[in-house]
Amino acid sequence: MSYIVSPYAVDLEGIRLVGSYSQEFSDHVVRSSPRHVLDRLDEAEELGLTPRDVMRQLLLGEAMHEDFGPTYGHALEVLCHHAGTLLNNAHWAGMRFRYFSMVEEALAELGVDFDPAGLVLGGAPIELPPIDDFPSIGFVESHRIGAMADTLAEVELERLTDDAIRGSVAELRDWARTCQAEGLGLVCFYY
Protein backbone atom coordinates (compact mmCIF):
# COMPACT_ATOMS: atom_id res chain seq x y z
CA MET A 1 0.00 0.00 0.00
CA SER A 2 1.26 3.47 -0.80
CA TYR A 3 0.47 6.81 0.75
CA ILE A 4 0.34 10.49 -0.10
CA VAL A 5 1.18 13.87 1.41
CA SER A 6 -1.50 16.49 0.81
CA PRO A 7 -0.04 19.97 1.47
CA TYR A 8 -2.21 23.08 1.84
CA ALA A 9 -1.23 26.73 1.83
CA VAL A 10 -3.72 28.17 4.30
CA ASP A 11 -4.34 31.01 6.74
CA LEU A 12 -3.78 29.28 10.07
CA GLU A 13 -5.46 32.08 12.00
CA GLY A 14 -8.64 31.38 10.06
CA ILE A 15 -8.29 27.66 10.70
CA ARG A 16 -7.90 28.34 14.40
CA LEU A 17 -11.32 29.98 14.47
CA VAL A 18 -12.89 26.52 14.55
CA GLY A 19 -15.54 26.48 17.21
CA SER A 20 -16.73 29.97 16.33
CA TYR A 21 -18.06 29.48 12.81
CA SER A 22 -21.76 29.63 11.94
CA GLN A 23 -24.02 26.83 10.74
CA GLU A 24 -24.32 28.72 7.46
CA PHE A 25 -20.54 28.63 6.96
CA SER A 26 -20.40 24.94 7.90
CA ASP A 27 -23.13 24.12 5.37
CA HIS A 28 -21.30 26.16 2.73
CA VAL A 29 -18.08 24.21 3.33
CA VAL A 30 -19.92 20.90 2.89
CA ARG A 31 -21.87 22.06 -0.21
CA SER A 32 -18.77 23.44 -1.92
CA SER A 33 -16.42 20.54 -1.13
CA PRO A 34 -15.78 17.94 -3.82
CA ARG A 35 -17.26 14.52 -3.14
CA HIS A 36 -13.82 12.85 -3.08
CA VAL A 37 -12.81 15.17 -0.23
CA LEU A 38 -15.98 14.56 1.78
CA ASP A 39 -15.65 10.80 1.27
CA ARG A 40 -12.88 10.82 3.87
CA LEU A 41 -15.53 11.52 6.52
CA ASP A 42 -17.42 8.26 5.84
CA GLU A 43 -16.12 6.61 9.02
CA ALA A 44 -18.53 8.84 10.96
CA GLU A 45 -21.42 6.81 9.54
CA GLU A 46 -20.64 4.25 12.26
CA LEU A 47 -21.96 6.84 14.71
CA GLY A 48 -24.89 7.73 12.49
CA LEU A 49 -23.22 11.02 11.53
CA THR A 50 -23.14 12.61 8.10
CA PRO A 51 -20.28 14.75 6.74
CA ARG A 52 -22.49 17.76 7.54
CA ASP A 53 -22.70 16.63 11.19
CA VAL A 54 -18.94 16.15 11.48
CA MET A 55 -18.18 19.54 9.95
CA ARG A 56 -20.75 21.21 12.20
CA GLN A 57 -19.14 19.66 15.28
CA LEU A 58 -15.70 20.87 14.21
CA LEU A 59 -16.63 24.33 12.96
CA LEU A 60 -19.26 25.26 15.54
CA GLY A 61 -17.38 23.78 18.49
CA GLU A 62 -19.86 21.06 19.34
CA ALA A 63 -18.72 18.00 21.27
CA MET A 64 -16.65 15.63 19.16
CA HIS A 65 -16.58 11.85 19.61
CA GLU A 66 -13.22 11.00 21.20
CA ASP A 67 -12.95 7.66 19.39
CA PHE A 68 -13.17 9.24 15.95
CA GLY A 69 -10.07 11.45 15.93
CA PRO A 70 -9.12 10.35 12.40
CA THR A 71 -12.51 11.51 11.12
CA TYR A 72 -11.99 14.96 12.61
CA GLY A 73 -8.46 15.00 11.17
CA HIS A 74 -10.02 14.48 7.75
CA ALA A 75 -12.61 17.15 8.59
CA LEU A 76 -9.72 19.54 9.20
CA GLU A 77 -8.48 18.66 5.72
CA VAL A 78 -11.93 19.45 4.30
CA LEU A 79 -11.64 22.89 5.93
CA CYS A 80 -8.09 23.37 4.58
CA HIS A 81 -9.28 22.35 1.12
CA HIS A 82 -12.09 24.91 1.37
CA ALA A 83 -10.08 27.77 2.88
CA GLY A 84 -6.68 27.14 1.32
CA THR A 85 -4.93 25.85 -1.75
CA LEU A 86 -3.89 22.26 -2.31
CA LEU A 87 -0.30 22.48 -3.51
CA ASN A 88 1.31 20.29 -6.16
CA ASN A 89 2.21 16.96 -4.59
CA ALA A 90 2.88 14.66 -7.55
CA HIS A 91 6.27 13.64 -6.10
CA TRP A 92 4.76 12.95 -2.67
CA ALA A 93 2.17 10.45 -3.91
CA GLY A 94 2.50 6.70 -4.09
CA MET A 95 5.10 6.60 -1.33
CA ARG A 96 5.88 4.76 1.88
CA PHE A 97 6.96 6.44 5.12
CA ARG A 98 10.58 5.41 4.53
CA TYR A 99 10.65 7.90 1.66
CA PHE A 100 10.82 10.79 4.14
CA SER A 101 14.12 9.39 5.44
CA MET A 102 15.43 8.91 1.92
CA VAL A 103 14.78 12.58 1.12
CA GLU A 104 16.28 13.68 4.45
CA GLU A 105 19.42 11.59 3.79
CA ALA A 106 19.80 12.98 0.26
CA LEU A 107 19.57 16.52 1.64
CA ALA A 108 22.07 15.72 4.38
CA GLU A 109 24.56 14.52 1.76
CA LEU A 110 24.38 18.06 0.35
CA GLY A 111 24.86 19.60 3.80
CA VAL A 112 21.22 20.62 4.19
CA ASP A 113 19.53 19.83 7.51
CA PHE A 114 15.83 19.33 6.81
CA ASP A 115 13.55 16.47 7.87
CA PRO A 116 10.44 16.38 5.67
CA ALA A 117 8.74 13.94 8.06
CA GLY A 118 8.36 16.88 10.44
CA LEU A 119 5.81 18.30 8.02
CA VAL A 120 3.39 15.48 8.85
CA LEU A 121 4.33 14.55 12.42
CA GLY A 122 3.97 17.81 14.35
CA GLY A 123 0.27 17.47 15.08
CA ALA A 124 -2.72 19.52 13.99
CA PRO A 125 -2.81 23.31 14.29
CA ILE A 126 -6.05 22.97 16.30
CA GLU A 127 -7.18 20.72 19.11
CA LEU A 128 -8.68 17.46 17.89
CA PRO A 129 -9.55 14.16 19.56
CA PRO A 130 -6.56 11.77 19.54
CA ILE A 131 -5.63 10.39 16.13
CA ASP A 132 -4.21 6.89 16.54
CA ASP A 133 -3.98 6.19 12.83
CA PHE A 134 -4.18 8.23 9.66
CA PRO A 135 -4.13 11.03 8.83
CA SER A 136 -0.83 12.15 10.25
CA ILE A 137 -0.88 15.94 10.40
CA GLY A 138 1.76 18.62 10.69
CA PHE A 139 2.00 22.33 10.04
CA VAL A 140 4.40 25.22 9.67
CA GLU A 141 3.40 28.65 10.97
CA SER A 142 3.51 31.47 8.45
CA HIS A 143 6.26 33.21 10.45
CA ARG A 144 8.43 30.05 10.15
CA ILE A 145 7.90 29.49 6.43
CA GLY A 146 10.71 31.89 5.55
CA ALA A 147 13.23 29.72 7.42
CA MET A 148 11.96 26.64 5.59
CA ALA A 149 12.20 28.47 2.25
CA ASP A 150 15.74 29.65 3.05
CA THR A 151 16.85 26.15 4.04
CA LEU A 152 15.45 24.59 0.87
CA ALA A 153 16.87 27.40 -1.29
CA GLU A 154 20.32 26.11 -0.29
CA VAL A 155 19.68 22.88 -2.17
CA GLU A 156 21.40 22.60 -5.52
CA LEU A 157 18.75 20.46 -7.20
CA GLU A 158 21.06 19.35 -10.00
CA ARG A 159 23.26 17.62 -7.39
CA LEU A 160 20.42 15.32 -6.39
CA THR A 161 20.99 12.22 -8.51
CA ASP A 162 17.62 10.54 -7.94
CA ASP A 163 14.93 12.04 -10.18
CA ALA A 164 12.10 11.33 -7.73
CA ILE A 165 13.94 12.89 -4.80
CA ARG A 166 14.92 15.88 -6.94
CA GLY A 167 11.23 16.36 -7.83
CA SER A 168 10.16 15.96 -4.20
CA VAL A 169 12.66 18.55 -2.98
CA ALA A 170 11.61 20.93 -5.77
CA GLU A 171 8.01 20.57 -4.60
CA LEU A 172 8.98 21.22 -0.96
CA ARG A 173 10.75 24.36 -2.12
CA ASP A 174 7.66 25.41 -4.12
CA TRP A 175 5.41 24.81 -1.11
CA ALA A 176 7.56 27.04 1.05
CA ARG A 177 7.89 29.75 -1.59
CA THR A 178 4.13 29.78 -2.26
CA CYS A 179 3.27 30.06 1.42
CA GLN A 180 5.91 32.73 1.95
CA ALA A 181 4.75 34.80 -1.04
CA GLU A 182 1.13 34.65 0.14
CA GLY A 183 1.83 35.08 3.86
CA LEU A 184 0.25 31.72 4.65
CA GLY A 185 1.05 28.72 6.77
CA LEU A 186 1.44 25.15 5.56
CA VAL A 187 -0.67 22.22 6.75
CA CYS A 188 0.23 18.73 5.55
CA PHE A 189 -1.77 15.50 5.81
CA TYR A 190 -0.25 12.04 5.29
CA TYR A 191 -2.46 9.04 4.64
Protein described:
With 191 residues, this protein is of the alpha+beta class. The protein is 48% helix and 13% strand. The protein has helices at 12-15, 23-32, 35-38, 51-60, 69-83, 98-109, 118-121, 142-153, 163-182, and strands at 3-10, 85-86, 93-95, 136-140, 185-190. Strands 1, 2, 3, 4 and 5 form a 5-stranded antiparallel β-sheet that branches. Helix 2 crosses helix 4, helix 4 packs across helix 5 and helix 8 runs antiparallel to helix 9. The termini are close together. The mean pLDDT is 94.
Percent helix range: 40-55%
Distance between the ends? 10 Å
Name the poorly predicted regions: none
Task: Provide the gyration radius in Å.
Answer: 17 Å
Structural class: alpha+beta
Q: What is the tally of helical segments?
A: 9
Note the run of SSEs as H and E. EHHHHHEEHHEHHE
Task: Give the averaged pLDDT, no decimals.
Answer: 94
**Strand count:** 5
For the sheet with most strands, the description reads: 5 strands, antiparallel
β-strand amount: 5-15%
Shape: elongated
